[in-house]
């Protein structure tokens, strides 16, 4: 998964969750066995709600701390 971005006025309305759930279902239906992404530290709990788990250490991307996360499909 690349970047997920939701306009500020649409945040906290379930848009990001709906997008992520759709992506997960599409990956499952196409036979993928694992999803991975690089999450900003502020977003880790959001992805954990969907079952993603942190893998590895924190790293910087565009000056923002991130971690890699994986989800078994």
Write the layout of secondary structure elements.
Blueprint: H1 15-29, E1 34-40, H2 44-48, E2 53-61, E3 64-72
Antiparallel strand pairs: 1-3, 2-3
Give the low-confidence spans: none
Strand order of the largest sheet: 1-3-2
How much of the sequence lies in strands comes to 25-35%
Q: Which oligomeric state applies?
A: single chain
Number of strands: 3
Order of helices and strands: HEHEE
Shape: globular
- Could you tell me the mean pLDDT? 96
Distance between the termini: 13 Å
The biggest sheet, with number of strands, parallel, antiparallel or mixed sense and barrel status, is:
3 strands, antiparallel
Give Rg in angstroms.
12 Å
Q: What structural class do helix, strand and pairing data support? A: alpha+beta
How does this structure look, described?
By secondary structure, the protein is an alpha+beta fold. 27% of the residues lie in helices and 34% in strands. The protein contains 2 helices and 3 strands. A 3-stranded antiparallel β-sheet has the order 1-3-2. β2 (53-61) and β3 form a beta hairpin. The longest helix has 15 residues, at 15-29. The radius of gyration is 12 Å and the shape is globular. The mean pLDDT is 96.
Please summarize what this structure is.
This protein has 73 residues and is an alpha+beta fold. The chain has two helices and three strands, in the order H-E-H-E-E. The protein has a three-stranded antiparallel beta sheet with strand order 1-3-2.
Q: Characteristics of this structure?
A:
73 residues; globular; 2 helices; single chain; alpha+beta; 34% strand; three-stranded antiparallel beta sheet
